[in-house]
Amino acid sequence: MILATNLREGMVIDLEGRILRVLHADHHRGVGRGSAMIRTKLRDVMTGESFDKTFDPEDKLERARLEERPHQFMWTDGRFYHFLDNETYEERELTAEQVGETLPWLKEGEDFFITLYEHRIIGCEPPPKVDREVVYTEPGLKGDTAQGGSKPATIEGDLRINVPLFINIGDVITVDTVDREYVTRASLAK
After folding, report:
1. pLDDT tens digit string along 29-64?
2. 21 - beta bridge partners?
3. Which CATH architecture best describes the domain 129-188?
4. CA 7 – CA 61 distance, rounded (Å)
5. Strand order in the sheet with 150-155
6. For 100-141, how does the pLDDT look when each residue is reduced to its tens digit (9 = 90+)?
């Protein structure tokens, strides 16, 4: 059990049988004689429904017991995305809805984290950092340096991010999947 005052973004709670992810938690102090409250924005991980809910600071909530397991993305048949559990070698089929925002990060042979609640799939997350090839960007100019600014680039998965001016088409770069930001140049593609 956790107190409502300890709610933070990203936490997953079990509230009256619903599994809810905390999208936002705002702590408000009471004005004058008013009591404090915790305003939250929650999303039901099974249905995708988002809603606002207010809690008293002393409300006790149950944290959902989630299991996060590494899976290797194998292939897609256009309808399902096939993953292989790295520990049990069990194959799992996920729909586009279950894969969610991870869809553009999918690359065959890479590991992703599938979140389970009571053996039901509730989400799929990419690793924190991945290496991707730059498929399009404007050419860099001689003398461009890492401190010289940035330009837009399209990387594998049709994702657009900003990269330093010295990055060119064919370069392999490391990208932070949470912030969708350039981290470093991984290597040059051959």
Report:
1. 766 666 789 999 998 887 778 999 999 988 999 998
2. 12, 43
3. Beta Barrel (2.40)
4. 9
5. 159-164, 150-155, 129-137, 171-176, 181-188
6. 889 999 999 999 999 888 888 888 999 999 999 999 999 866
Which residues have C-beta within 8 Å of that of residue 44, sequence separation ≥ 6?
18, 19, 20, 50, 51
The CB density around residue 1, as the number of other CB atoms within 10 Å, is 8
Residue given tokens 């305003």 in the structure block? 39
Query: Domains of the chain: which residue ranges?
Result: 2-63, 67-125, 129-188
Look up the pTM and report it.
0.71
**93 bridge partner residues:** 82
**Domain 2-63: which topology?**
SH3 type barrels. (2.30.30)
Instruction: Tell me which architecture the domain covering 67-125 has in CATH.
Output: Beta Barrel (2.40)
CA 151 to CA 169: how far, in whole Å? 12
Query: How far apart are alpha carbons 52 and 40 in whole angstroms?
Result: 6
Q: Do domains 67-125 and 129-188 have the same CATH topology?
A: yes
